[in-house]
Amino acid sequence: MTYSFRLTVLAAGVLAPILSHQALARTPEPQPPSVIFGDLYRAVEMAQIFPDQKTFADAIPMSSPASIMKDYAAEKGKPDFKLADFVQAHFKQPVLKTVSYQRRAGETVSDYINDMWTVLLRQPDEAEPYSSLLTLPAPYIVPGGRFSEIYYWDTYFTMLGLEQDGQGAIARDMLRNIASLITRYGHMPNGNRSYYLSRSQPPFFSAMVDLLAQKNGPAVYKTYLPVMRTEYEYWMQGAADLKPGQASGNVVKLADGTLLNRFWSASDTPRDESFREDIETAKTSRETPSVLYRNLRAGAESGWDYSSRWFADGRTMSTIDTTDILPVDLNSEMFHLESALSYAYGLDGNKAEAKVFAARAAKRQAAIQHVMWDSAEGDFHDYNWKTKQLTPVLSAATVVPLFFHVATDAEGARVATVVQARLLAPGGILTTTANTGQQWDAPNGWAPLQWMAVQGFRNYGNPDLAKTIAERWETRVNEGFARDGVLVEKYNVAAPAGSSAGGHGGEYALQVGFGWTNGVQAALMAEYPLPQPKAATTAPAAASP
Questions:
Q1: Domain membership flag for residue 333
Q2: In the record, which residues are listed under signal peptide (predicted)?
Q3: Which residues lie below 8 Å from residue 412, measured CB to CB, with a gap of 6+?
Q4: Is 305 annotated as catalytic?
Q5: CA 408, CA 369: separation in Å to the nearest integer?
Q6: Would you tell me which of 51, 268, 334, 502 could form a disulfide with 290, CB atoms 3.0–4.6 Å apart?
Q7: Is 489 a catalytic residue?
Q8: pTM (predicted TM-score)
Q9: Number of structural domains in the chain
């Protein structure tokens, strides 16, 4: 099945202002705080001076790192030295760019989402010396809560709501910002922080281009063709030199010569934003610490941080082996990127490159169907290239080949049967069937997975299942809003109908906001309208994200 791009006609000149980022030269990658501050960084995070490890990663040095480290070396051995006081004297927290949000009387979910576009909006960044923040040239929407920067794949699902709510200019700015980062650094990092540069996230840039092209026309593809090509080269770096059975970075070559992708990180040290947690995990693992840290970082690149999908024993973080796994969703996303490049080159008159990428997309599609399809169970699974076996975890990633038009019609029908029998829950679809305490496992459901399931089943002629998932998720989100007056990043979809339970698990508390939940809810409400509840008058006002 060939992916079909839905396009309209674009008036000349509409995209001209977006191109300014392409003039930027490739920028050297700044070092993360954990490298710049070395022993000081480790001491602060291990002492748990801040409840959230991300707080110090985002802190802004008040003088040059060299000066701070000189002071630290001189003072740390003194009898009256107090680490917390030293940090307070040498670092400051970023100015909170939040807007206090007070719920309005009679407010509906739609009202809340529209108001939150303003609350979560950030203006173009001004560079702060020595900050871990990577500046962006245009306004942007942050997820909310502890997440005060943009995140890669979150952005696509946030853009859905912006487009739905008449905020197309901000959606275009979001795309421009990501294009800017890809142009500057050769890839889109996990988020716009220096400590995220060693890894990316699910490559949704071509899907974002597709989303805007559906409204603004085919010129969007030509505009962002160089950026999509840069992204592709990043994910495929090292492929040309691989021999069968070898891997390099994000690429693996199977024994038959097939090239597929995995999640990976250029760094093999503890994550800055979860430094102490990673070191504690290493203490319980049989794996070499550097290998474990790379697998943890690769798991974070997946966006599913964390899930039983990445655990060798299916239960325990210390057995994480992300880099051994070829994920079905990542490879479906790469199929879309190759298809989009083929289409864009065709529009640009480069028939040779259009043919090259059409062939690569077709080969990847065939590989996904051959390598990752479980004919016995009737669904898609990840593939462990080391053991040469499908992984046993059933996850919502099985719907992603349907979202990106990778599956055959017969496969789409069988996936629908499996999802309905094993993943469909009272509040939407489960992330996996395993309850491990990780946030990307049962009983949690996440907005992006609901959206891809709904659209995937619509693509494959199962509108009834699509509607069921959409309405169950919408209802779960609405119930939470009626009780609490806010939308959150994830929900407990396994709880009985009528429950408003937010999700739980993972490395941090449940976050309010929330970018991609708002975006998907706005888009689903437009396609599947349901009565909207009003927040209970006794519910607390929304916390400022």
A1: yes
A2: 1-25
A3: 402, 456, 457, 459, 460, 461, 462
A4: yes
A5: 8
A6: 268
A7: yes
A8: 0.94
A9: 1
